């Protein structure tokens, strides 16, 4: 059994991450999950969340990931997402403003509000804020 697997994370604009890792976790439509070496072939729908990456040297990093798909096959995983941002690249004040706007839209619903769009914006804002503020549990 291999101790690592290749993880590639891409957005429409760029390749964000490409290296061997020991583990990767984030959130799917069904909840939190973790990928380890020799994981079975899968196609998983990802929702906005904080991804946790443990690289081949044991360093643990976190990354905001937006909606997308994760394909796992033959000890390789490719995550294709709309957006991926390292904590240092997230504008927390902007994310908090987006959260407040979405909450306001949802609490003051009228016929012109796109509820689904506001809910998605709220989830993305929460995930960005969590990515910056959450502490990572060391193993």
Write a structural description.
With 139 residues, this protein is an alpha+beta fold. It is 25% helix and 41% strand. It is built from 2 helices and 9 strands, in the order βββββββββαα. It has helices at 92-107, 115-133, and strands spanning 5-10, 15-28, 31-35, 42-46, 49-55, 60-65, 68-73, 76-81, 84-85. Strands 1, 2, 3, 4, 5, 6, 7, 8 and 9 form a 9-stranded mixed β-sheet that branches. Strand 7 (68-73) and strand 8 form a beta hairpin. Helix 1 runs antiparallel to helix 2. The radius of gyration is 16 Å and the shape is elongated. The model has no long low-confidence stretch (mean pLDDT 91).
Brief characterization of the structure:
Helices cover 25% and strands 41% of the residues.
H/E element order = EEEEEEEEEHH
End-to-end separation in angstroms reads 21 Å
- Strand tally, please? 9
**Helix-and-strand structural type:** alpha+beta
| Continuous helix count | 2
Gross morphology: elongated
Determine the fraction of residues in helical runs and give it as a percent range. 25-40%
DSSP strand (E) fraction?
Answer: 35-45%
Topology:
Blueprint: E1 5-10, E2 15-28, E3 31-35, E4 42-46, E5 49-55, E6 60-65, E7 68-73, E8 76-81, E9 84-85, H1 92-107, H2 115-133
Parallel strand pairs: 1-8
Antiparallel strand pairs: 1-2, 2-3, 2-5, 4-7, 5-6, 6-9, 7-8
């Amino acid at each position: 059994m291999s101790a690592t697997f290749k993880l590639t994370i891409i957005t429409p604009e760029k390749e964000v991450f490409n290296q061997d890792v020991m583990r990767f976790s984030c959130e799917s439509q069904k909840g939190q999950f973790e990928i380890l070496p020799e994981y079975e072939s899968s196609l998983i729908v990802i929702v906005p969340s904080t991804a946790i990456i443990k690289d081949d040297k044991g360093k643990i990093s976190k990354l905001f990931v937006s909606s997308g798909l994760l394909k796992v096959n033959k000890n390789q995983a490719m995550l294709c997402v709309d957006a991926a941002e390292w904590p240092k690249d997230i504008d927390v004040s902007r994310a908090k403003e987006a959260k407040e706007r979405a909450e306001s839209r949802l609490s003051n619903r009228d016929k012109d509000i796109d509820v689904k769009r506001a809910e998605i914006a709220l989830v993305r804002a929460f995930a960005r804020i969590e990515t910056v503020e959450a502490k990572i549990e060391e193993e």
